[in-house]
Amino acid sequence: MRRLLSILGVLVLGLALFTLWRHMGDMSAHPTFDMVEVEPGRRLHAVCEGPKEAQFVLYDAGAFGIYTDGWWVQQHLKDDFRVCLYDRAGLGWSDPVPQDVTPTPRWHVEDMRRLANALKVKAPYILVGHSMAGIRLHSFSSLYPDEIAGMVFVDAAAPDRIRGPQIRRLIRTFTRIMQLGAVSAQLGLARAVSPLVPDELTLPAAQRADKKRSIAWVSHHKASREELAALEQEVTESYLANSNADQRPMAVFSAGQIGRINAQMAEQAKNNTGYGIARNFPKESHVSLLNKENSKMLAQAVRDIAAQSRQTSQHKAAQ
To answer: Please, what CATH class does the domain formed by 31-318 belong to?
Structure first.
């Protein structure tokens, strides 16, 4: 028994020293890319690449996601589009959500617009959203339809399905998981297991490190939990029922049932705008749809949307 206790003591001490070492490394670390001030004293971590006057594309990650998830989409588009990836407020390297704010989809839409304004880019934009970001894309479309040139939904959620009892239970479950994640991060357990998290996107070393670092941060878990809780509060808002997404060119890529719920709108978008596609990839995972190879397909959809948007604008100008 004494020998067992000694072994456990060594393991606990080793974990504590490892956690302290990694924490000290984080304290001396710096954001990988630019910190863009979107409000006085509050910044978002963002990386934007591509010609400054080119069509602007903004990638929005899903729940718990950060800029790294859209890395390959950006790499495939940066030669002829201005593509921005960012960490939402409170996630990754970005500053926290203001204390008096509930981070609802509507609030995050305003933050996306604040970021675009700070970057001095012009609407209309092409939005690419993964997973729960689908709700924010629908919100954006409902609130500011004239600022959108088109949208790409990547295994993304939609308001109608979120209102259902099954998905709302799922949201509550994930909210509790994020709460447990925050506790595990405080204890150093999340940091200890983060190197074991698989890298389905095969990211470059710096982006892989940022992804694993976010898993270990208490603030990241708490911000993710608050986002999900706010989402459940707002799914009954009437503006979400009228996203007008089918009034703009759109592409839908899905790996599972949740992602396919936007497919019908894509068909309507084709009738309304001349471009709308929906493709299902059952052999891919929720994450692998964003890998280097699949991102070529997502990037091509962005190009097609931009071409259709230009054609529509030229047609209206000629009338």
So the answer is: alpha beta
Check: CB of residue 189 under 8 Å from CB of residue 236: no
Rounded CA-CA distance 218/225 in Å is 11
pTM flag (> 0.70) = yes
Cα separation of 215 and 235, whole Å? 27
Q: In one letter, which amino acid is 148?
A: I
The CA distance from 307 to 298, in Å, is 14
Rounded to whole angstroms, the Cα distance separating 39 from 177 reads 31
Q: Are 306 and 77 in contact (CB under 8 A)?
A: no
Where are the extended beta strands (E) located within 61-146?
82-86, 125-130
Q: 76-115, pLDDT tens digit by residue?
A: 999 999 999 999 999 999 999 999 999 999 999 999 999 9
Q: Residue ranges of the domains in the chain?
A: 31-318
| Contact indicator for 197, 215 with CB cutoff of 8 Å | yes
The C-alpha atoms of residue 50 and residue 294 are separated, in whole angstroms, by 20
pLDDT digits (tens, 9 = 90+) for 185-203: 556 655 555 565 778 999 9
Type of residue numbered 134: G
Q: Give how far Cα 185 sits from Cα of 16, 21, 117, 163, 167, Å.
A: 12, 14, 34, 31, 26
Report the DSSP beta bridge partners of residue 57: 83, 126
Peptide bond into 145 cis (omega under 30): no
How many residues are listed for the chain in this entry? 319
| Dihedrals phi, psi of 12, to nearest 5 degrees | -65, -45
Neighbours of 279 (CB within 10 A): 13
Own/partner pairs for 159-166, CB < 8 Å, 24+ apart?
159/135, 159/235, 159/240, 159/241, 159/243, 160/241, 160/261, 161/258, 161/261, 162/135, 162/231, 162/235, 163/235, 163/236
